[in-house]
């Protein structure tokens, strides 16, 4: 197992945000966490990347207990994160933002940079532009590209589709599928549960700091409780937009017009 979260409890002051979360992510998977605002999704990702300390429980990565490892070292062992709200550096160029993703590494980064530009041609076109002048969708691409610069084994994505128009949402999901196809394991947090479940292998449902359900992602698409709570209710999956295969959707994503 690549990533194992064992019974983690995390607090903000006296407030318990995570009350015993257990989950695992196997190499090569896309796993999604779904749940309402405040369920603990962001806190779970921050605990994995080392931005929040554990009160109790354990985080294991590649078989090693990393519960007390500082965040910058977790980047080096292979945990990459694109944070909620993107967190790009607005005054820095796109390219310098990308280099920041690999600050903990040394050596030649031209190969990583070329791969990010291949995945996101829009970033290549705008590499000298200030990050803060990019559109919402482009900033999301930049946040993901920056995380990829450190060659993560697992990529943690926190609400990558937040605030984006449907067409951009589709592009971001297609790119996530492509990143996974190229060998990166993905742990995806999404409010857009429908699309997240369509691209994921497995899913966990979080409620108020607990895992209340875990299953194959496609099974949750047909789960009446999940449908009612997270998929806008209704029966049957006919309205579901099928996830486009990466081979066809990514080239389209590259040529899409500049809008969000
Ligand atoms: N910085 C913070 N200070 C205090 N409480 C927080 C903070 N961040 C999150 N929380 C609380 O922790 C719980 C989980 O939040 P979060 O992980 O952000 O949920 P989600 O990402 O699922 O919306 C919520 O009750 C939230 O109010
Ligand atoms: Mg959140």
Automatic annotation (TrEMBL):
GO terms for molecular function: ATP binding; ATP hydrolysis activity; branched-chain amino acid transmembrane transporter activity. It comes from the Bacteria. Keywords: Amino-acid transport, ATP-binding, Nucleotide-binding, Transport. InterPro entries: AAA+_ATPase, ABC_branched_ATPase_LivF/BraG, ABC_transporter-like_ATP-bd, ABC_transporter-like_CS, BCAA_Transport_ATP-bd_LivF, P-loop_NTPase. The keyword rRNA-binding does not apply. PROSITE patterns: ABC_TRANSPORTER_1 (PS00211), ABC_TRANSPORTER_2 (PS50893). SUPFAM superfamilies: P-loop containing nucleoside triphosphate hydrolases (SSF52540). Residues 3-233 form the ABC transporter domain. Pfam families: ABC_tran. One of its GO terms (biological process) is L-amino acid transport. Belongs to the ABC transporter superfamily. This is ABC transporter ATP-binding protein. The lineage of its organism: Bacteria, Bacillati, Actinomycetota, Actinomycetes, Streptosporangiales.
């Amino acid at each position: 197992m690549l990533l194992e979260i064992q019974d983690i409890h995390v607090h903000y002051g006296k407030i318990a945000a995570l009350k015993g979360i257990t989950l695992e992510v196997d190499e090569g998977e896309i796993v999604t966490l779904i749940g309402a605002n405040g369920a603990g999704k962001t806190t779970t990702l921050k605990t994995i990347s080392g931005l929040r300390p554990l009160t109790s429980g354990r985080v294991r990565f590649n078989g090693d207990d990393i519960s007390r490892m500082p965040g910058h070292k977790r980047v080096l062992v292979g945990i990459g994160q694109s944070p909620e709200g993107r967190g790009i550096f607005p005054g820095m160029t796109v390219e310098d933002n990308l280099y920041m993703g690999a600050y903990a590494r040394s050596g030649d980064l031209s190969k990583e940079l070329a791969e990010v530009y291949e995945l996101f041609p829009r970033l290549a076109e705008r590499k000298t532009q200030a990050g803060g002048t990019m559109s919402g969708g482009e900033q999301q691409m930049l946040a993901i590209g920056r995380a990829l610069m450190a060659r993560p084994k697992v990529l943690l994505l926190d609400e990558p589709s937040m605030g984006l128009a449907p067409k951009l949402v589709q592009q971001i999901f297609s790119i996530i599928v492509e990143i996974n196809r190229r060998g990166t394991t993905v742990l995806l947090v999404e409010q857009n549960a429908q699309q997240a479940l369509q691209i994921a292998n497995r899913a966990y449902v979080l409620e108020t700091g607990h895992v209340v359900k875990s299953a194959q992602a496609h099974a949750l698409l047909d789960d009446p409780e999940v449908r009612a709570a997270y998929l806008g209710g209704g029966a049957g999956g006919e309205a579901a937009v099928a996830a486009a295969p990466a081979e066809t959707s990514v080239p389209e994503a590259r040529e899409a017009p500049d809008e969000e």
